[in-house]
Amino acid sequence: MVSASPGFTGPAFYNDCAGPLWFDPFAADLVRRFPNRPPGDVLEIGCGTGLVTRRLRERVDSTLRVVATDLSAPMLDYAREKLGEGKGIEWREADALALPFEDRSFGAVVCGFGIMFVPDRHAMLREARRVLADGGILLFNVWDRIEENPHAAVYAAVVEAMFTGDAEMRFRTPYEMHDVENLRRLLAGARFRETLIETKRIAIEGADPKSIATGQIRGTPRAALIEKRGVPLDLVIGKVVDALTAAGGNPYAGQGQAIVVQARAI
After folding, report:
1. Contact residues for 57 (Cβ-Cβ < 8 A; gap 6+)
2. Mind listing the pLDDT tens digit for each residue in 90-120?
3. 55 CB contacts (<8 Å, ≥6 apart)?
4. pTM of the predicted structure, to 2 decimals
5. What is the DSSP pairing of strand 132-143 with strand 192-207?
6. Secondary structure of 51-111 as H, E, C letters
7. What is the distance between the alpha carbons of residues 168 and 226, in angstroms, rounded to a whole number?
8. 101: Cα separation from own chain's centroid
């Protein structure tokens, strides 16, 4: 699975097409679980276009810092421009596997749909634990299995059929962290105590299939891989639109489903 690399150029499509349909509703769900005054400053890992960041800054007590990080400079630049400087948000380009912060310097770490893309999830959680004070909060979400996210299953089927046997075009990685027991093992291995693991479903209704398909393709690093293979993006978008319409109608109706994880540093 290709990740949101520093060269990713589709933040606006990600934010404006995919964002309102499922990323922002899940961001709202994630942040509503967060205390107004956590036990220290807040670090967000993989902030993307700032959908979670905005809500965190609105919720967290103004006396506490909110530091938003991402490995992708284009994503970070887009979020910074959208949300602005000097509004109580610090922006840092950072690798989740080598966070540029001192030990125990935060009271909370938050990550919305980011951990799935990190090549070493154990190492990421160990880094999150390193920068958290004892008792600090860890809050993140991951996608549930792809079958519970029909728009993703449709997209995957179309793209994989177009590029049969092409491992780079396989679209399963974001949906392979749904195993609750594995999540518990990851937490325990990084010195976290689970406080909640919960499935959250959000309805998708009245959506434009073309907007969904555009966000899925132009709003992800996969666009570069498709273009590299000499296939026009609009051709792929059209095929995905047809498949989404067949599966969920036009306007499209379906669901997104995630697993929300809360834990404490021990």
Report:
1. 66, 83, 87, 88, 89
2. 999 999 999 999 999 999 999 999 999 999 9
3. 27, 28, 30, 31
4. 0.94
5. unpaired
6. HHHHHHHHHCCCCCCEEEEECCHHHHHHHHHHHCCCCCEEEEECCCCCCCCCCCCEEEEEE
7. 10
8. 22
